[in-house]
Amino acid sequence: MLGAIIGDTIGSIYEFCNIKTTEFPLFSESSEPTDDSVMSIAVAEWLLTDPERTQQKLEDSMVKWGHKYPRAGYGGAFASWLFSPQFLYGYRDDTNTDEDSKYGTRHPYNSWGNGSAMRASACGWAAHSIEEALDLGKRSAEITHNHPEGIKGAQCVAAAIFLARMGASKEEIRAYIVDTFGYDLSRDCDDIRPGYYFDVSCQGTMPAALAAFFDSYDYESAVRLAVSLGGDSDTIACITGGIAEAFYGEIPKTIVIEARQRIPDEFWPIIDEIRGAV
Fold first, then answer.
1. pTM of this prediction?
2. If you write DSSP's letter for every residue of 123-142 in order, what string do you get?
């Protein structure tokens, strides 16, 4: 999960200033965690403190952390869910009914955006089986992103991290993802990079983030490849970084030292506890 937050932090300054090369400074004075990291921490805290994994407790955690970091760069619909839920009713989905009260005071808004995938890394660390990884990914997504593609993106991240933790090869991870989620993973980074643009959908984000992981040879190369694709750089690097950490098993100490200067102190106990719970 630390790999996801560092990836987000590295990619933060390139989200709206894309750089189509792997040769770039990993950190600058402006590098900082974004909404990807804040919500990753919220999901992790939920997993660590709520053994029943209820939607109400997840909502509580997301709202708590979101309000602690109100300027982290949330997307429009999610910002409404977080700060002004009274204005969100009916957004994208006119089928919401009283049944949605199970989600607490807020309700999901049928999003297929990559916000569900970017916050799901802890699900892959907390899971004890591939079935549990899929279930936790789904639960973490559907509180907001209850569109099938939104759920699929979160499940894919959780499953990839779980499989990587269990020692699966890249070929085995790729085959599982293609068979289970149907993503086209036939293109490598060199194929994707020239025409890749800003795409906040899970459908457009996951194949790119996965290509960066599959083309990498260590954690740093994975994040560099992810950022080099352009588009939603912080989220792509967050997803790629989370999977790469699980697969390679370590993050270079020099990168961790730089990250410690930028990641809030209150994030670290949760990051350490998720890793220690494995």
1. 0.94
2. HHHH-SSHHHHHHHHHHHHH
